[in-house]
């Protein structure tokens, strides 16, 4: 996408939506706007293959040439998110089937079942054709596979294809049905199977199905995403050597294991819609109102750090919101400056691409209310100027440098999300809210953070946090045993085995030795119920969740008001026995960061910082103008000491920092 | 229904529900109560045709004769809303199909698909038989076609019949599939079709379908209502010459174009349930509590004016609530006086019929909790006396006179409702709430109002308001260009083409010249979010919605706090760039009414007025007793100067008014 | 289950879930814990019949022997709530069908349709085999039929079997279709049938179906529960003479007539989950928070009294919550002491069995979060000690004595619940909330209460309350006529006939003579709407509901603020014309109890009492420690004068009480 230490500005473009005689001018204005990357083609299947047996790649070749002529590197999308009508009519069982047994049919997008073998063959066919045609085109610098896997709840399908695939997958995993019965505990309600052909998908039962059944189906479904993706990458590796292959992931999506999919990709790109994403997030209304025009101060950064981890250091923004969007319940206008701020913040976190969605607002079909850089009448819209400013920023910064490993790591797990969604036990127990609150608390102290997967190497981190992770795989358990930094383990960790059972030694299962505790009971709380504790003189609460911990070898650092342990510590391994309110979480993390020897700051609510190379970035999400003279330690190359809401400042970090 | 300048009191009656020996006494008591019109027969199909091939019209003939003998004119309903079991069993594919693919079967009412050709033939058959039998009966003064089109969400059906009909309709509209693909913008997500047979109904897709697809399906569905209606009117025009043909429309119903259906009808009657309708309206709980026993002070009048417009001056109330109903979430008892007040208010607005639903409360089946004029044990219920009082009122008033054209018009559009429901862009953007708030604000100033359709002639009005109307048809655009009164255009008007696309010149599209503005961006707000402005010294807000307007030739009359235009004006054409709160809306309308030279009043919250002929009516919806001496300009023929809650006053307007 | 005057402690145990070499130790620890009854086997079908044609009862024989060896009497469950996969695959139409036409399939439990003849045969087959094998085993002291009828909304099924069964049932009830049409009032919307084969299930119609149709389907569905139950009891009566046969009923379940089912059973046992049941009850959040760790102070007692009535004096707790459960939205931990308190309270109300669910917390499958007496790692959990304390309590109390008939009766009706659910008329009209509020008000006065069915003999009661009972059967009407105590009749009583019609004499129908009133109109209120009245100097309200009563022979004891009667009285028969708030209800009941000559108390909010034999029990549900010296009239054998939250006290009643 971009050379080491640099970043490119991009845009998403649909030449097939516009008369061909507009293309050259579009390309010229893109270049003038500072844009150097253009993603195209990802929804164009009906134009590439207008009917069965007939293809037309000529227009795409001309579009690529036109862009290339203006020095715009093309990221070519495979169109597999939108198979055309003639194709689906030839294999109507390719649709995903919903929870109620209904096909999820034609008429929008993502109308396919990941398990369908015929559709995989069609994907291979069109990708082979595209790879052969454009794989070595000098204007093609990368490929995007499909579009937003999982969008519109499309990972899990209850189709016949999925059923047959699932049975096969189970046979591979368990060998014998007796082993499966034992692993799942099917004796519980006479759910025992006599052979794999008796096993149904975990849907349509009278009440809750076996959580082990659901866990394996979640794993199976995630694997199908990886496989459909790999069908395409395997082809493009051969036909388009040297190009980066990417996918555009989403905000807070949990239905498949992004680390697995990334094994076959080069760069983790994601689609950043700060205002829309905040509008649909389960935040409280006052928070939504305060940041309705800026976005949450941590949500974008969280995903930058998440996808930088998933991309083994390489990530980008494939779609960046340029104005109001069309899909949230309410769609506000960003404050002036935010379109540039969001891009610059991505770069601060290491992005090698900031690509805006979309070039020109569509005057037809589903997304007419989605702003672009250009109005439907071809005048420039407000965002265009902000993109130009970002381009000037990039020139000022020159070599951006590499993103150094952070001192703090949060361990993210998709499998943990599935476990907790299957049996939340308290209706408001949300993995995403928990990990995001941990991220927010750490970042508010001015820390740079890495978000890593469960297989990551943790050595070198001064502080690591393990959000609730019911099943802790052996490799991670071993890694944590050897970890030398301060480690905070959140409740429910180690409370289940790989087969979604309670471990024979109870929670925290494989971490019992490390943490020196045993959990004998848990309880969950209604909203506005909670249990109190005093920590470092502050009145705090556990809400949502708390656990009854028996200490075997650990020290009790804090107790709940009823006297039971709240926070324990065995050496560097800390265990928190409940869901902390924001105050408590901040105090605990500050305490551990202190023990880890980290230097901490206390920023105003909307100020956030991040370092990249020798640059230090500061962003003001508001709600107030900020005097940042006390924070800036160096000469500002971007911004002033009085930072408006929506403003950004950058300075070169002195040697003393 | 009634002679010019007069009005009749009616009642809905079900002779088939009661022993024949009760009929004569019922008719006698009706007449004694002042009733002169009786609607019968609209649910009686299973008694008219007890089984396939056998009909029994004798009882109905005797019922009509019995009523006629007491000088009661019969409005005979066609029974097509309730086809009997034997009929549906002969064509089980006649059921409408719901959004999830399930038939909407037998067991209640309205169990048919408007598109089903076989059912249309059955309707023609029974209507022909009824027309032949009773069309020239001297006791039959009118016909009601079917009952409450669209009730229980029955306009749109996703059946095979609808699918085939829709494809045919599209072929008629677009000629070629290429033209349709272009109009809809199907290239957007590879949704292009190769022929009309590939097109599905806009349902069952993974996410939102193409808004153009939905728009055309809404139009198609509306057309089917008109066609089924016309099948029946065509027959009755021949078989029952000289009788009025009507339909009973509903409260705030939007799913079909009532103006289209009215082209084949004589009088627009509607079913007025003030308490039930307020209970299910999205009003705030305090408002609902304040008017729980009276109904909203404007809701009935709104529909009177709406249906008077739809009926080209002729309208009536076919069903008037006489006590608690059975179908709202909560069903309050009307305050004493309201049963008469609602009737008199209808007459003030020009109704030629006020027909109460129902004569005797049913002791069986679905509507047992619905009050009538007579209790199930045949004693008179409270409403009977209020109906008698209304009859005395009518005698006092004598010749009612004609309803003069108002000075103020609101342009109502069903198509606009569909557009806005398909892509609201803000979850709370409701056409019905908007048009009703405009109506309420104007009426609170003491103005008489006409609600007219988009094809109405606007000349002669001093003030016109055009609620949000995404697609403005050429005829209306031309009419507005030539309009000489003050014109207020609400946001989103002209923002879409007939094919649900953004116009090439952006919004307000065809009104760009008239208004002298261009809209480049829109945003929507969560509840309790808003943007502030000061107008005429008052602190106001835009909530729900606001737009970014570029002024090309207009003056900026008011600005939002961020400096952008809020209200613009080019000569007599005003544009409002947001959703006004009640204060702002009232101030703006008062300003325009002032410019239009209209005399305004400021009534207490529950007082409402209306003129008919030389009579001036005043109604007190409460919550307080009102001293109306300062308002009454003439001698009271009905009511006193102290008007209780639920009271009505009428005086002859002096020559000075 | 237990000898007269005594009670047994039991536990629910799943030997099939654990290695056989653990059984003996389990049995030993049970005995040591004071346990003498063990329920087993109710979900074990797949182990009893691992495949078609092969059975394996050996393990169960060994399990029973092992328990018997430790003096543990076995209650053997029939496994019909969990038919195994091979069985359902042989008759896939045995699944219940939901409201939307979808099978409620395999994968959890209760996956059968009560109407399916083939499944009834399978039940008979397995029960015959079990009865033959274990019916005369000396260790088997009782049988539990199936498990929790109706759990997961499984009473009503919309299957083909149900359809055919329903038609047959209707033919039996009505004889001719003409009689049915007349009874249901099918003429209303042309819903008349020509033969029974035309009748569908009351589902899938466009809007509300005929309430008479729904009423009969509710009756039919209830009858199928009774019949499936009787299939099993008929067999076990023969094969296992002298053993008690029971079923485990649920909390606030309404979908079948429990009195009908009890006709074939010996003891009414029920499953008591105080914390989970409060969490899902429609109580206000503050109440839920106050009692989150104790349970509602009246909910358990209500069900004890309900099921003692249903069991003709014999009842027990088959499943008693021992810690947090897994199925509520939020699952709190009981305060220490409650596990014992709940058991002791059951005994105070006459329980002959208190059986805890479950012995050992399951480490696999659906209920892993449900606590037991033993942890999954085989250590004892907290509840074990409380069970031991309960065993010591029982020893202290010795002969418990019989439960004397109370002076106060509440008449409970399942049919009334169906009527009111079919046409609530006000969305918040809830039979269960009403009867429970009556129970709570009476119990807060220190009264012992019997909850009796509509066929119960009321003679001997000093006070009886009849909650809203739309249809009053002739036998009950006669019984009330002859009743000599004070009788309070709640609104809506007598407002419908058996065929769900309004009686020809209006409400209260058959009670018109007894009460001396006639109801001519009803209305329902939104939350926070209400109508006021003053009663005994207190400001009170009717909310949810009020009626317009005409007095024919009664006295008006109280009037609503608008002057209409609120409370009437004809001799000992009182009628309440609205839904009383808690204050009003308490005042009225205190007034009637006074007239009935009952001695009343006024306890602190969480104190509750109950007498059994010569013992008087007092329980403190909190929220405060209570000094009970003023209440205790005798020497305490259990507890102290200062009663902690969760504490219980028992003393021998002196002769003066
Ligand atoms: Zn260049
Ligand atoms: Zn007359
Ligand atoms: Zn013993």
UniProtKB/TrEMBL annotation, chains A, B, C:
InterPro entries per the UniProt record, alphabetical: Beta_galactosidase_Trimer, Class_I_gatase-like, GH, Glyco_hydro_42, Glyco_hydro_42_N, Glyco_hydro_b
Catalytic residues in the record: 148 (proton donor), 319 (nucleophile)
Cleavable signal peptide: none
SUPFAM superfamilies (alphabetical): (Trans)glycosidases, Class I glutamine amidotransferase-like, Glycosyl hydrolase domain
This enzyme's EC code(s): 3.2.1.23
Reactions mediated catalytically: Hydrolysis of terminal non-reducing beta-D-galactose residues in beta-D-galactosides
GO biological process, one term: carbohydrate metabolic process
Family: Belongs to the glycosyl hydrolase 42 family.
Designated name of the protein: Beta-galactosidase
Species this chain originates from: Parvibaculum sedimenti
């Amino acid at each position: 996408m971009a050379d080491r230490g640099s970043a490119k500005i991009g845009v998403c473009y649909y030449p097939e939506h516009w008369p061909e005689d507009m293309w050259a001018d579009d390309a010229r204005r893109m270049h003038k706007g500072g844009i150097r990357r253009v993603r195209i083609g990802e929804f164009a299947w009906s134009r590439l293959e207008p009917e069965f047996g007939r293809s037309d790649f000529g227009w795409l070749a001309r579009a690529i040439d036109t862009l290339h002529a203006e020095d715009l590197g093309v990221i070519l999308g495979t169109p597999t998110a939108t198979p055309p009508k003639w194709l689906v009519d030839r294999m109507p069982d390719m649709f995903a089937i919903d929870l109620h047994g209904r096909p999820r049919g034609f008429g929008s997008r993502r109308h396919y079942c990941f398990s369908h073998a015929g559709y995989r063959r069609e994907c291979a066919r069109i990708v082979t054709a595209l790879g052969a045609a454009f794989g070595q085109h000098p204007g093609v610098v990368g490929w995007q596979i499909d579009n937003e896997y999982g969008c519109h709840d499309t990972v899990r399908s209850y189709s016949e294809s999925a059923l047959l695939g699932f049975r096969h997958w189970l046979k591979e995993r368990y060998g014998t049905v007796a082993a499966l019965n034992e692993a799942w505990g099917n004796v519980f309600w006479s759910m025992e199977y006599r052979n794999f052909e008796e096993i149904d998908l975990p849907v349509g039962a009278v009440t809750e199905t076996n959580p082990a059944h659901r866990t394996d189906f979640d794993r199976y479904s995630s694997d199908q995403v990886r496989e459909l993706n790999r069908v395409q990458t395997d082809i493009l590796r051969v036909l388009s050597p040297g190009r980066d292959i990417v996918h555009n992931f989403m905000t807070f999506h949990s239905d498949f294991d992004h680390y697995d999919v990334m094994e076959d990709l080069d760069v983790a790109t994601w689609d950043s819609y700060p205002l829309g994403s905040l509008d649909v997030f389960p935040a409280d209304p006052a928070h939504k109102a305060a940041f309705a025009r800026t976005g949450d101060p941590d949500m974008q950064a969280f995903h930058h750090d998440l996808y930088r981890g998933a991309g083994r250091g390489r990530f980008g923004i494939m779609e960046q919101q340029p104005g109001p969007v069309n899909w949230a319940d309410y769609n506000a206008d960003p404050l002036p400056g935010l379109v540039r701020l969001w891009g610059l913040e991505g770069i601060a976190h290491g992005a090698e691409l900031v690509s805006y969605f979309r070039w020109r607002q569509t005057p037809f079909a589903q997304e007419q209310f989605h702003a672009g850089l250009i109005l439907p009448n071809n005048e420039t819209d407000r965002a265009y100027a902000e993109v130009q400013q970002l381009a000037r920023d990039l020139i000022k910064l020159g070599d951006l440098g590499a993103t150094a490993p952070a001192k703090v790591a949060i361990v993210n797990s998709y499998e943990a999300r599935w476990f907790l969604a299957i049996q939340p036990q308290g209706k408001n127990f949300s993995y995403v809210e928990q990990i995001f609150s941990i991220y927010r608390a750490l970042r508010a102290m001015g820390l740079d953070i890495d978000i890593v997967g469960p297989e990551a190497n943790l050595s070198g981190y001064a502080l690591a946090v393990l959000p609730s992770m019911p099943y802790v795989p052996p490799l991670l358990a071993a890694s944590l045993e050897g970890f030398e930094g301060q480690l905070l383990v959140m409740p429910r960790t180690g409370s289940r085995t790989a087969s979604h059972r309670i471990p024979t030694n109870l929670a925290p299962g494989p971490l019992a030795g490390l943490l020196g505790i045993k959990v004998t009971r848990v309880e969950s709380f209604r909203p506005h119920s909670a249990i109190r504790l005093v920590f470092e003189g502050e009145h705090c609460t556990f809400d949502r969740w708390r656990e009854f911990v028996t200490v075997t070898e650990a020290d009790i650092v804090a107790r709940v008001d009823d006297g039971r342990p709240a926070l324990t510590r065995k050496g560097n391994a800390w265990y928190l026995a409940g869901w902390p309110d924001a105050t408590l979480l901040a105090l605990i993390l500050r305490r551990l960061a202190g023990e880890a020897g980290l230097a901490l700051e206390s920023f105003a609510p909307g100020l956030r910082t991040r370092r990249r190379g020798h640059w230090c970035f500061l962003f003001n999400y508001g709600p107030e103008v900020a005097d940042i003279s006390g924070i800036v330690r160096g000469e500002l190359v971007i911004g002033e000491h009085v930072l408006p809401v929506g403003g950004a400042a950058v300075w070169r970090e002195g040697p003393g920092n």
